[in-house]
Amino acid sequence: LERPRGFRAIFYHVLVFFMVFTCLALSVFSTIQEYEDQAIAILFVMEIIVVIWFSIEFFLRLWSSGCRSRYQGAVGRLKFLKRPFCIIDIVTIIASIVVLVMGTSGQVFATSALRGLRFFQILRMVRMDRRGGTWKLLGSVVYAHRQELITTLYIGFLGLIFASFLVYLMEKDVKETKFNNFAQALWWGVITLCTVGYGDMVPETWQGKIIASFCALLGISFFALPAGILGSGFALKVQQQQRQKHMIRRRQPAATLIQSLWRCYAADS
Predict the structure, then answer these.
(1) If 120 and its partner were Cys, which of 71, 95, 107, 265 is the partner (CB 3.0–4.6 Å)?
(2) Where is the Ion transport domain (predicted)?
(3) Contact 170/205 with Cβ under 8 angstroms?
């Protein structure tokens, strides 16, 4: 369950992924009026199956965690329960049980009072990467390039503040303007610099349009830098991991060869 190896283990985890994905898809369809009734009925049954399944799996993982020395005994089991992914499992299981218990029929999923608990059920997708390889890779890349990212974010933040303030000064006296305060100008600056462009707020004066053009160009040229930094960092990190895996695969044959040569040498001596 923790370190899947072999066809059966991979098949089990793929099956669990499809079950979680099916529940997520049914949750989406339950918010669409045309498919609400059918999706809620199927989702209620799927939720019962998933809760029972994950509860049994959780207790099996808790029971089998004692095979490792640091998780043996009551203190070890408690240490195992404090792991982040175990906490996520506990939260999702409890949230699912509460949603199921508080309703006597599948219509429990349609009540607005319990829709907030549905968020915790979405955390099931997080548990798919139980070993945390994705998050460790992301964290290592961000940490390795932290100085470049901080620099770009700092300069981008300064550009956002100055551009929003200048547009606010140019537009605040215009009749029927939407730049009524600096907060609204900051909202416009964020949307413009991120090149989203909702179009709900646009400058009317030519000075404001010049500043807006500068912001758009700044967003295209400068705000793409973090993506490039992270992309190159991911590529380098993946290459490094591949080299490490290659070295690990070569280590065992090399050790076997050295042992064989040493035995031959000892036998000749």
Answers:
(1) 95
(2) 10-241
(3) yes
Walk me through the domains of the chain, giving residue ranges and CATH numbers.
7-130 (1.20.120), 136-268 (1.10.287.70)
Q: Which residues contact 96 (CB under 8 A, 6 or more apart)?
A: 47, 50, 51, 54, 120, 121
Tell me if residue 184 falls in helix, strand or coil.
Answer: helix
| Token code pair at residue 116 | 């907030």
> What is the distance between the alpha carbons of residues 268 and 265, in angstroms, rounded to a whole number?
5
Residues in the chain: 269
For 122, 239, 250, the CA distances from 243, given in Å and listed in that order, are 35, 6, 11
Q: Select from 136, 130, 146, 178 the least CA-distant residue to 2.
A: 130
CA nearest to 55, candidates 143, 124, 153:
124
Dihedral class, residue 181 (left if φ above 0, else alpha if ψ from -120 to 50, else beta): beta
- Calculate the alpha carbon distances from 38 to 18, 179, 240 in Å: 19, 46, 49
Closest of 34, 35, 32, 85 to residue 58, by C-alpha: 85
pLDDT of residue 115: 54
- The interaxial angle of helices 36-64 and 7-29, nearest 10 deg, is 150
- Average pLDDT along the chain, 269 residues, taken 10 residues at a time: 67 80 79 79 82 85 79 82 80 78 53 53 63 72 81 82 87 82 87 78 85 80 74 78 73 74 71
Tokens of 17: 């992924």
Q: Give a three-class secondary structure readout of 53-92.
A: HHHHHHHHHHHHHHHCHHHCHHHHHHHHHCCHHHHHHHHH
User: pTM to 2 decimals?
Assistant: 0.55
